[in-house]
């Protein structure tokens, strides 16, 4: 998995490229957890995301909860239909913001 992080000034954009699974979620946690600060707005750009496992879903939910608790916001963009269906099946669609 490749992770690109860019601070645009008004939010942090995290581009996910490849597979987000048990093997790669640790790298994402190491890079993103320190950025989950009070009032932070973050966007996960899923344009290059090919696959997401339950471990990846768990981390996205964790990031959402941490940001929501500190008046921040998490959104996802460019989610492929195959990935979006996983969010739909797990009920995450009603919890998360999609752009």
TrEMBL record:
It comes from the Bacteria. Pfam families: STAS. One of its GO terms (molecular function) is anti-sigma factor antagonist activity. CDD domains: STAS_anti-anti-sigma_factors. It comes from Phocaeicola barnesiae. Transmembrane segments: none annotated. This is Anti-sigma factor antagonist. SUPFAM superfamilies: SpoIIaa-like. Belongs to the anti-sigma-factor antagonist family. InterPro entries: Anti-sigma_ant, STAS_dom, STAS_dom_sf. Residues 1-99 form the STAS domain.
């Amino acid at each position: 998995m490749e992770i690109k992080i860019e601070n645009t000034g008004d939010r942090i954009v995290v581009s996910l490229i490849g597979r987000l699974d048990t093997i790669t979620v640790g790298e994402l946690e190491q890079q993103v957890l320190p950025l989950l600060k009070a009032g932070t707005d973050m966007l996960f750009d899923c344009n290059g995301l090919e696959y997401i496992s339950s471990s990846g879903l768990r981390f996205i939910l964790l990031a959402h909860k941490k940001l929501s608790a500190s008046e921040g916001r998490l959104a996802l963009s460019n989610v492929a239909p195959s990935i979006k269906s996983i969010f739909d099946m797990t009920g995450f669609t009603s919890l998360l913001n999609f752009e």
